[in-house]
Structure formats: structure tokens, C-alpha cells
Specification:
251 residues; 10 strands; alpha+beta
Amino acid sequence: MPEGDTIWRTAAALRRRLDGQTVTAAKPTATLGRLGGHRITGVEPVGKHLFIRFDNGLALHTHMRMDGAWHVYAPGERWRKPERMARAVLETVDCVAVCFLAPVVELVRDDKNSVVGHLGPDVLGESFDADMVLARARASRFETLGEVLLDQTVCAGIGNIHKCNSLWQQRLDPWRRVDASDDETLRRLYATARDRIRRSAVAQGFVPAPAVHGRGGRPCLRCGTPIAVRSQGEQGRLTYWCPRCQGSGPA
């Protein structure tokens, strides 16, 4: 699933091509046709969500989940995916923006709080409220650090890759209980995740710092111990960690 940095880069690419442009056609016509003739007034990422705003008070809200992606083409350029996979198409005089395979594509009133008001502070937000994140982490229904990092109602935009790598960087066991962690530990953990995601967003890819995600069975880059991997939480996301640097994991 795309993380906050991926959506940030997607929004930046769409903004460069679409901001201020007038939509000449929008498909599917049945759901998006009323965007035709209207000017795009902004493109904003919010955690893992993306909003394209229009001058008629509407916004196109998309969420990529595992398979979704936005592409931008020149008029007449061959698409890299088949047309049947397109969930939204916005045409302007200069370009064609296509959203492929996104499970969430909807028109909403231009009030993002009606869609994402339940989310915690955006990990890439300029005014990141660390105190609110800490309070929400303490109130989360999830008990372990690995699960609470993925709780978007605590902090929006952190995904599994940055979860694993941030925990490794802070030498924290993913199965350590939140209530067994002091405030300073939680603050450092979220600050690390925010720093990694911000650097990744600007660097056009994941930061080339030592990490564990995807390295199951390979030696830890810090101590040489084989990296362990196990599913965690309700969604069964794979968690990678070093049993020596971070702890033994689940009992």
C-alpha cells in the first residue's frame, strides 16, 4: 500500500501538470462528467488520501490501497496500463491524468474533514502536532508499537515499510506494548518515522539508510543477526525486525 511519501510525490506530480488547468473531459461520464469545464484549484495529499479540488466546490477523492496509481500522459500518448483498469480520467488541453485500479474514487464536497476528519495528524503535515499524536497513541485500541504505528487515526501516512524501519532504527521491539513505553520513547519513534518519510518524499524514493523491511533471513545491517519476519495485527501485515537489536518479538 502506498505510504505518505508516495502519495506526497504523486500529488506533487499531479499539481505540476493539473493545477490551474480546465478539465475538458472527465470519465466515467456518469460519475465524473460534471467536472468538465471546471478549473482545478489544488491537489492535496492527506496521509494516504489524495484530493483534487475544483472551482465548483467539488473534490475528487482517491485512495490507492494496494494496487492504485495515478499516471499523467500527453494527449494521444499510449497508456502504460489497459483502459479497462482506469477508474478516473481527467483530460485537459495539455495532459491526461488517469487513476488506475484505485478502490476509492469519489466526488465529495470540498471539505476534506468530511472524509478524513477521523485521521490523526498527517505525518508530512507542516504543522505536525506531536502532542496530539502522543495522546491518540495512548488512546488507540491497538496494544503494540507495531500496530499503533499503522493506526491512521493516530498518525496518518505511516505504512508498513516505514513502520518496520523506524522501529529498527530506534531499537524497539514491534511487539512491545504501548503502555510499557514512556512518552519520550513514543515521541522519538514518531519523529523518526516522520523524518524518514519526509526525506523519502523529497529524495524520490526510500532513503538509503540501513533498514530491515524485506530483509527476512538476511543479516541485520547493524549486528549481523538474521532478520526475523512474522505477521502482526488484524491485517496480518508482515513485520521485519532484528531479534538481537530489538527484542525477541511475540511470546
